[in-house]
Amino acid sequence: MPKIRIVFFVFCILFAAIVVKLFTIQILRHGVSLSNAITKFQRIQPARGKILDRNGDQLVSNQTTYLLFAEPKKISNTYEVVHRISDVLQMDTASIEARLDPTKDWVSIRAGITEEQKKRLTQKTLEGLGFEPRPTRFYPEGSLSSQLVGFVGKNDRGDDIGYFGVEGFYNKDLAGLPGIISMAKDVLGRPALVGNYEKIDGENGSDLTLTIDKSVQEIAKRKLKAGIETYEAKEGCVLIADPQTMEMLAITCLPDFDPEKYYQFDEKFFTNQAITSLYEPGSIFKPLIVAAALEEKKIKPDTEFVEGGPIQVGEYQIRTWNNKYEDKLSVTGILERSSNVGMVKIGEKLGKNNIYNYLIKYGFNEPTNVDLQGEAAGYIKPKSQWYTIDYSTATFGQGIAVTPIGMLRAFASVINGGKLLQPYVVREIGSGEDKRVREPKVIRNVLSAHTSSLIREMLVSTVEHGEYRYAAPVGYKIGGKTGTAQIALQGKYDASKTIASFIGFAPADKPRFLALVMIKEPGTSIYGSETAAPLFFEIAKELLYYYNISPQ
Amino acid sequence: MKKFIFSPFVLVIIVSLLIGNLYVFVSNMKLSEEIAYFNDQIHTLKIENSLLDNKLTMQNSLSEAASVAAQLNFTKKATLYHLSDLGMAKK
C-alpha cells in the first residue's frame, strides 16, 4: 500500500510541477520572448527582379556574395587565419589583425566575397571563420548602362533599395514582397514538427524588359567615349530613340560609374545628365520654330528673307555665327546656314504669343515623365517676365533651358508627323500571364503631318548642304541640325565654352532612329559641325548597318 | 482499484504508449534533421543555379564578345567598310 501511495504522490508532484511551469509561461510571462525562443519567424527574402534589354538579354541580374566574418574567441591559430585571408583576398595583414579583437564575439572582415574566393578560403578548415550569404546585383555588361539602370544600395533600415535610373523608379516592382515562415524550433535550431507551422509565400520581384537595345547602347557609348577623347571634351551624352514611339533605344552619358562599386564614386557621377541637366540648346532648336511658323502658315518653305547684316533688337545686336550675311535666304537656306538673323525674322513673323505657346506645346515647361528616377523639368519663365530680346534669342535656342530628353522628345514630334509622345525606357513589367506591356502614349498633336513632312525635307537639305556633309554616309537620306550653344556663366556667355550638339534622324522618309549627340566644352573646336556632327554620323553608320537599312 | 491499475492489460497499454511516444519523438528529430539538410541543399542549389545562369549570361555578353574579338585580333580586320565610291564598278 505505501508503495502505491509513494508512486501516486510522485506523479502528483510531477503533475503539479508541469502545471506551475505552464502557469509561469502562459500567464505570468506571456508577453516575454520565451515564446519567441520556441517559435521562430523566418523572413523569406524575395529575389529582386532582373532587368533585361529589349531582346531579352540580361543587363542586371542577381548573384550571391558573402560577408566573411570571424568569431575571434573561437580562433586558435590567429597567424594562419590572418595570412590565409590576406593571400586570398589581397588584404593587408595589419588591418585583418586589427579586426580580430579577442574580446569580441563577432566581427566582419569583408563583404562582397565571391564563390570562388569562398572556396579558396575554405580549402583548409579554419576555425572561427564563417560566411553570411548576401544577395547582390550582377552586371554582365559592366558599366554599359550604369546611369540608365542605377544601382541597389541600402536604406537606413538596412533593406535593399534602388537608387537612380530604372532601379530607383521601379524599386517596388523589382523588390517584390518578402514571405514569412513561422514554426517551432528545437534548441539546436532545427524545425520541430509540433506546434504551429505557418507560411506566407513571398513574391519575387518582377523582371523588367527595357526598350533599350544593348547593342545600340554599346555603339553609342563606345563612339561617345572615342568622341570625347578625340575632341578633348569634358562630358558628353548620346540619346537615341525611335521617333515613332519614343521608345528609348540608348541613353549614355560620360563620365559615369561602375555600378558594382558605386560606393567608390562621387555622387555627381550617379545622376544621368540626359534627364537632369538643363542647358540652352542653341541652333538645334531652330527647326522647332520653323515648324511652328509653317504650321501657323506664317511662312512657306520658299519664303525669302533679307539677311543683310546684324539685326538690332533693343540694345542688343544679333549676329550670325560667322558674321557673314546673304542678301536673300529662303527658309531652308536659313536652316542650312544656321542664320540667327534669319531666325529672328521668322520669329517676328510667327509672333510673340505663338513663340511662347509653341514652347509650351512642345512640352518644355514640364518634365517628360520618362520612367527614370531623378528627371528635372525644363524651365520656361512666365510670359510676364519675357522681354522682346527673349523672344528673339528663343528662336535660336538661347535664353531657354531644356533637358536633353525634353529636346529629343520635341524634335521627335517635328519629324514623326507632329505627335508629342511620352518617352519611356521600360516596355514590359513581369512575365507570363502577369506581364504588363506598355504602349506608346501620345500626349498631344503639335503639328500636322504635312508640316512634319516639309520639315523633314528641309532638314535633309540642311545635312546635304552643310559643312559636315562629307562625314555623312553616302546613299542615305539623313536629316539633322547642328547646334553650338554658348554656356552661360554668372549671367554672361563665355564664347570659348560651348555645348556642341547635333540632332539627326534616318532614314529621312520614315525615320527609324533619332539621335541627339551633345559634347560639352570640346577642346579641339567649339562648333557642333566639327565635333558633334561627325560623331553623330559615326554612330549613324553603325546603326544603319545594325538595322540593315539599305541605301536609298 | 489496485487490481485495475496493475492489470496486465493496462500495463501493456501504458508501455505501448510510451514506446509509441518515443518512436514518434525520435522520428520527429530525424525528420527535422532531414528537413534542415534539404533546406541547406536547396539553398546551395539555388546559389549554384544562379552562378551557372550568370556564367551563361556572361558568355552571351558584349564584353565577352569584345574580349574574344580582341584576342583573335578580329576588331581590326572586321571594321565596317562603306562602299562610298563605286567608280570602278560603274565602269
What does this structure look like?
- The complex is a heterodimer of chains A (about 550) and B (about 90).
- Chain A is α+β, with helices and mostly antiparallel strands and about 550 residues long.
- Chain A starts with a helix and ends in a 6-residue tail after the last helix.
- The model of chain A has no long low-confidence stretch (mean pLDDT about 90).
- With about 90 residues, chain B is an all-alpha fold.
- Chain B is built from 5 helices and no strands.
- The longest helix of chain B is centred in the middle third of the chain and has 52 residues, at about 10-60.
- At the A-B interface, strand 3, helix 9 and helix 18 of A face helix 2 of B.
Largest protein-protein interface = A-B, 30 and 25 residues
Structural class of chain A: alpha+beta
Report the C-alpha radius of gyration of chain B, rounded.
38 Å
Oligomeric status: heterodimer
Q: In what range is the share of β-strand residues of chain A?
A: 15-25%
H/E topology pattern of chain B: HHHHH
The separation of the N and C termini of chain B measures: 126 Å
Rg of chain A (C-alpha, Å): 33 Å
Number of helical regions of chain A: 18
Give a count of the beta strands of chain B, DSSP E runs of length 2 or more. 0
Unreliable sequence segments of chain A:
none
Query: Averaging pLDDT over every residue of chain A, what do you get?
Result: 90
Helix percentage range of chain A: 25-40%
List descriptors.
heterodimer, A: 552 residues, alpha+beta, 7-stranded mixed beta sheet, 5-stranded antiparallel beta sheet, 23 strands, 33% helix, 24% strand, B: 91 residues, mainly alpha, 0% strand, rod-shaped
Question: Could you give the topology of this structure?
Answer:
The complex is a heterodimer of chains A (552) and B (91).
Chain A: H1 2-28, H2 34-38, E1 39-44, E2 51-52, E3 58-70, H3 78-89, H4 93-99, E4 107-113, H5 115-121, E5 129-138, H6 146-149, E6 151-154, E7 160-163, H7 165-169, H8 171-175, E8 179-184, E9 197-200, E10 208-210, H9 214-230, E11 235-242, E12 247-254, H10 273-276, H11 286-295, E13 304-306, E14 311-313, E15 316-318, E16 328-330, H12 331-337, H13 340-350, H14 352-361, H15 388-394, H16 404-415, E17 419-421, E18 426-429, E19 436-437, E20 442-445, H17 449-465, E21 479-489, E22 492-506, E23 513-520, H18 532-546
Parallel strand pairs in A: 2-10
Antiparallel strand pairs in A: 1-8, 2-3, 3-4, 3-5, 6-7, 8-9, 10-18, 11-12, 11-23, 13-16, 14-15, 17-20, 18-19, 21-22, 22-23
Chain B: H1 2-5, H2 8-59, H3 62-71, H4 74-77, H5 87-90
